[in-house]
Amino acid sequence: MEQVKKAIDETYAWYAVYTKPRWEKKVAEHLQEKGIEHYCPLNKVTRQWSDRKKVVLEPIFKGYVFVKPRIENKWELRKIPGILNFVFWLGRPAQIKEEEILTIKKFLNEFSNVEVEKKTLVPNTPVRITQGILMNYEGMVIEVFGNRAVVKIDSLDIQLSAHFDKKNLELIG
Q1: What's the predicted TM-score (pTM) here?
Q2: Distance CA 160, CA 127 (A)
Q3: Number of domains forming the structure of the chain
């Protein structure tokens, strides 16, 4: 049963594709014409012109559109005008979980003027540990390797190397 579910998931997996700059909505139109399931998250934004205000729909992820093609047609997507390539992770087109797409959809249905912020850790960034035995200790990021960080905690005279995310490390300031 699990193998059947995995085969179905791989047959219809979500992927992100890079688009030409400011072509997100045009790419979505081309995908719609071809009957390919896609998602171009749009944000309701109020824009001010010299003579009026207007609510416009802007892509929330600049330069990206999510697609859910059949696996055998996946590489044909690159022929669609405006699509540059897949977003790759570890040498393969990156798959996006269905739950993540649904979360984005739900969030955008409830809120407007949404902004995408990419929080990254860089060396010499002060952080606070928010989980575990060292919770509330503050430290300094020494090195970053993908999603792992080495954090120095001066008060204990130690260094930690751990997977980081919003759950266990908080940027200070």
Answers
A1: 0.64
A2: 12
A3: 2
